[in-house]
Amino acid sequence: MSGAGGGAARGRFAVVGGGIAGVTCAEKLAAEFPSEDIFLITASPVIKAVTNFKQVSKTLEEFDVEEQPSSLLEKRYPNIRVIQSGVKQLKSDEHKICTEDGKEYIYEKLCLCAGAKPKLIVEGNPYVLGIRDTDSAQAFQKNLAQAERIVVVGNGGIALELVYEIQGCEVIWAIKDKAIGNTFFDAGAAEFLIPKLTAESRETPIKCKRTKYTVEGIEEKGRPTAACDKLGSALGPDWHEGLHLKGTKEFSHKVHIEILCEVKKIHLQQEFIQLQQTSLTFPKGEKDVEPDEVLWPVYVELTNGKIYGCNFIVSATGVVPNVELFLDGNNFAVGEDGGLKVDKHMHTSLPDVYAAGDICTAAWEPSPVWHQMRLWTQARQMGWYAAKCMAADALGESIDTDFSFELFAHITKFFNYKVVVLGKYNAQGLGSDHELMLRCTKGHEYVKVVMQNGRMMGAVLIGETDLEETFENLILNQMDLSAYGEDLLNPDIDIEDYFD
Ligand SMILES: Cc1cc2nc3c(=O)[nH]c(=O)nc-3n(C[C@H](O)[C@H](O)[C@H](O)COP(=O)(O)OP(=O)(O)OC[C@H]3O[C@@H](n4cnc5c(N)ncnc54)[C@H](O)[C@@H]3O)c2cc1C
Ligand SMILES: NC(=O)C1=CN([C@@H]2O[C@H](COP(=O)(O)OP(=O)(O)OC[C@H]3O[C@@H](n4cnc5c(N)ncnc54)[C@H](OP(=O)(O)O)[C@@H]3O)[C@@H](O)[C@H]2O)C=CC1
Question: Which part of the chain is the FAD/NAD(P)-binding domain (predicted)?
Answer without folding.
Answer: 13-194, 288-383
